[in-house]
Structures are given as C-alpha cells and as structure tokens.
Amino acid sequence: MQPVKLKVKQTVVIIPTSPFNFDATVFKPAHFPTPDSFWQPGKRWQTALWRRRPLGLIIENKGTIAKPKVHLHVFSQTGLSKEFLENIKQEIIWRFNLHLNSKDFIERFKTDKILGPAIKNLKGMRPMTHGSLYDFLVITIMLQNAPVRRSIQMMQNLFEKYGKLLEFGSKKLYCLWPAEKLAKVPEQDLRKLKVGYRAKNLLRISLPFAKNEIDEMELRQKLPTEQKKILLSLYGVGPQSVSYLMPDIFHNFDFLEHVPLWERKILSKKIFNTGTENPAPEEKLLKFFGKYKPYKQLAMHYIWEDLWWRHKQSPIDWLIKEVRA
DNA sequence: CATCAGGGCCCTG
DNA sequence: CAGGGCCCTGAT
C-alpha cells in the first residue's frame, strides 16, 4: 500500500503538571505493539483520526521530571486551523493526563512498603490512552479469549485491510478506520482476517459509533456508575473490558472492581509472593488495594508498570513465562 | 496426529 | 448464577 504523505507539520507546546515522567507515561511496556504507534525514549509517534482527518502525531519530551515540557508535532495533508490545533492539543492533554495533579497521591504513599518503591522509580507517571474510546474498544475485542500473539496478528490484519497507511516523521504507521466504514463490511470479509467470532463483536461495536449514538465527550462528564452502565450495554463489552476502559478512557483512578486473571497471577506474585500458578483470589487483591483509596487503580498502575519497567531494564525470569507474545 | 486453553462475553436454563 | 459455545492457533 502506498502511504499517504503528511507533509504539513505544525508544533504546539504543552506544559504538563510537575512532576512528570515522560517515558513511563507515553509508553507502557506491558501493552502489545500495534502498527499505529512507535516509541523510543523521549518520543512517541501516534496516528489519530481526529474530526475525520488522518493525523500523524509526535509527542516529544523537551523538559525534565521537575520542569516538564512537551512538544506536540501535528502532521497533516493540508494545513490546520489554529482552532483545530488547539482542539487536538486539548485532546492529547486529556489522553495522556498531562494536567493530572498527582502530588497528593505521591505524598501520601511515597513511603508505603509496596507502593513507595514504585513511586520512587516512576514518579510523575500517568495512565494514558493512545486513542479514542472506539480505538480502545477495537483492542479490547481483539483481546478476548486469545493469546497475546494472536491479538497482535488480528490487529495487524485489520490495520492492513481497513486502516490507512500514513507517512510522517520518517515513519510509516497505520491510522484506524472510521467506525462507519467498518460497520458496512460483510462479516465474512472480517472472518477472512482470522478474527473468528470477534467479527460479529467488531461489527456490532462499530454500529453505535457509526450512527453517532455514543458521544465520548459527553460520556466523560458522566458519573462513573453511569459510564460503566453504558459501557456494559455495548455488545461485546464485559467486566474485563470495563476494567481497562474506566481508568484509561474515563480517568477513574479509584475504579477497581476486577483484576483479570493474567494480571492477578503477576500482581499476586509481586505482592504476596505466591506462585503464578496459584494466584491469590481476586477478593484478596481488591482488599489489598483498598488501602490506597481514593487512588486504588492508580496504585495498581504504579506497582504494575514499575514491575514492567524493571523487567525491561533487566529481564525478570518468571515474568517472561507469563508473556506469550 | 488430536486435544486444549488462551489477557471474555453472550446466552440459556 | 453456572456453564456451554464461539473462531483460530500454537503448545503439548
């Protein structure tokens, strides 16, 4: 496929709240790679379909943990208005939580026995989402009942068939399709991409977005209980998908009702030193994180990410077994 | 070669 | 609220 070259580059400056850990925010080592983004220290490439325009984004570190500064480079086919740029800037601030105030959290738990070391290591890290609610839902559907390796393959197939290849900042990356395009695809075509029964789920999840029945911006304003209810009403979204969506998409950092099995295995070993083959029951983990209220989810994120960053720096044997990528 | 479970969810009884 | 079925694939 010939890439679409995004020749126009415009740059805006963002000053995140301090402290800010750039790399641990924009890159999550436990996430599997998809061909819509690329990371190297100090820089993340990310495609986005924003207000119907395919964009190339580079978010670049220009500051320090104590004095954060970020350049957002926006690549497009034709120039973008000031208003558009400001709009995408605000969206990136939201998605990467660049204006999050985490001082209270840090102060409260920096000496905690389990959480303290993670805070020390990753101080200023934030949860993030790479894209929109729809972008994220596509991933949660492809995660279902499949080993990671297969999820990666399914995402790759989908991007190649229905995505748009963009070239910007000397990288070629795919941009996700518009929901209305996917909603019209015959189920059989999707099945050819070896997504199996997920074809039906992908179609059904695309529909409300194609018909503008789901307004992500509006949902952001609603109470967590309402957000959860609406997410669960979507076909193909269950408790596990919700456990990812509530913090990452809707920034509910105290939301912790469910810990998926593979995370439970890993966290259980880390926290209670159990074997990964017999992890602590979910109840026990939820109870443990109860003490980090009102930051239960944020606390789990720090402990989780800390483990993965350490693993990246010097591989942890037992963790390798749990990643079948 | 067969069998099985995998970073779920829906539907049924 | 428990349990079967769903697509496909790599591991055993």
Briefly summarize what is shown.
InterPro entries: DNA_glycosylase (IPR011257), HhH-GPD_domain (IPR003265), Oxidative_DNA_repair_enzyme (IPR052054). This protein is an alpha+beta fold.
Could you list some keywords that capture this structure?
325 residues, alpha+beta, TATA-Binding Protein, Endonuclease III, domain 1, 5-stranded antiparallel sheet, 3-stranded mixed sheet, 8 strands, 14% strand, globular, DNA-binding
Note down, in words, how this protein is organized.
With 325 residues, this protein is α+β, with helices and mostly antiparallel strands. Among the domains are: 4-100, TATA-Binding Protein (2-Layer Sandwich); 133-248, Orthogonal Bundle (Endonuclease III, domain 1). It is built from 16 helices and eight strands. The strands form two sheets. It has a five-stranded antiparallel sheet with strand order 2-6-5-4-3. The protein has a three-stranded mixed sheet with strand order 1-7-8. Helix 4 (115-122) crosses helix 15 (296-313), helix 5 packs antiparallel against helix 9 (198-210) and helix 11 (224-233) crosses helix 12. It starts with a strand and ends with a helix. The mean pLDDT is 95. It is an enzyme of class 4 (lyase).
